[in-house]
Design goal:
Elements: H1 16-27, E1 36-41, H2 46-57, E2 63-67, E3 70-73, E4 76-78, H3 87-99, E5 104-108, H4 111-115, E6 124-129, H5 137-140, H6 143-155, E7 162-166, E8 182-187, E9 193-200, E10 205-211, E11 214-221, H7 226-242, H8 246-254, E12 264-268, E13 271-276, H9 281-291, E14 299-303, H10 314-324, E15 327-330, H11 340-348, E16 356-357, H12 361-371, E17 377-381, E18 388-391, E19 394-397, H13 400-408
Parallel strand pairs: 1-5, 1-6, 2-5, 6-7, 7-8, 8-9, 13-17, 14-15, 14-17, 15-16
Antiparallel strand pairs: 2-3, 3-4, 9-10, 10-11, 12-13, 18-19
Helix pairs in contact: 1-3, 2-7, 9-10, 10-11, 12-13
Length: 410
Amino acid sequence: EENINVSIPHIKVKNSKLVAIRLAKLFYNYIPVNHQIIGVTGTDGKTTSSLILYHLLNDKNTSSYIGTNGIKTSSLNIKTNNTTISSIELYKTLNLFINNHIFSTVMEVSSEGILDNRIDGLDFSGAVFTNLSHEHLNTHKTMKNYFKTKLNLFQNLTKEDIAVVNYDDKYGRKIKRYTKAYFVSYGIKKGLYRAKNILINKDNIQFDFYKKRQFLKQFNINLFGNYNIYNSLASIVYAYEYGVSLDIIKERLKTLIKIDGRFETLSYSNNTYIVDFAHTPNALKNILSNLKLVPHNKIILVLGSAGEKDATKRHIMGKIACEFADEVIFTSEDPKNEPLYSILSDLTKDLTTDYYLTYDRKEAINLAVSLATKNDIILITGKGNEQFENIKGITFKHNDMNEIKKALNI
């Protein structure tokens, strides 16, 4: 982008990032014929919805997944650093998929990935919108800007593409006017497709699947919570509109594998230990309000908030924690280079009830285990299946479920 004094041939460009994307597309010979990319976006539920959809579409190992939980095919499982990987890595990965005759890729699309041009040049054949709630305002400043960024994915779809949208979400109901795609809505209260007669247990969810007023199928899925009704609906609706029969969808849902770091449970000595990624006010409220419906003695919650990210959500999460949980332990959660004191201060500044506070996440988990008596639910949120914690630029090995097991001596 700048003038340089070198003897080798070189080209000055206006935007080197956009040129790098063009070159990656050419270098990895990306031709989107016979390969479909489905983008899944929203504040919460991207990972779960994407992995369910990947599972539903993976007939004869012809589907793949790219997102928070890595790069996956039936024979491949690679860890990644970002929800939406860099453009060069993306085209390299798609080249690998196409050469191995993989027909579709289900891909999580984050708002930061859109802003950073990571999906530029991709030809999406469909998109899913899960919801939009308070998050990433350090980047977007306002919810309006946040929504406009998410819209980018839908505005680039053509009339041959599919847009599957949560119609119970107020932002979802706005998308129809901004996209040319074939628009399909889902929800519990609103939408073309709906879930009715819902039953939620600790180990599964069950609902009747309707199109308008017509009953189509009953589903029983080994997930927890009302929020996973929405994630399941998003995946089922897209797969059904894509051409997968409801009988096949029902059969494949029976073999759905538990998703790492999403409501990962351990039952031990009359107590239930849960690790979940919930790191937004909406996700935290959803999981806690659903757990309140499960028979229990106390809910003990461990949470923090990531450093160098949206600070405006922290006091909201602190209030939700103390409203829904019986014992709350505030602690570290990837503070990075932000002072942990300021993060914990933000989380607790509006609280008038008692709570515990510790700088050490391992100590917080040990404390939660020691506070448990009988028939308690111990919930650890914010990091899911992550393997490390970043403090002052130093990466420490850490996994919440492993720390629970160490605290229990199992």
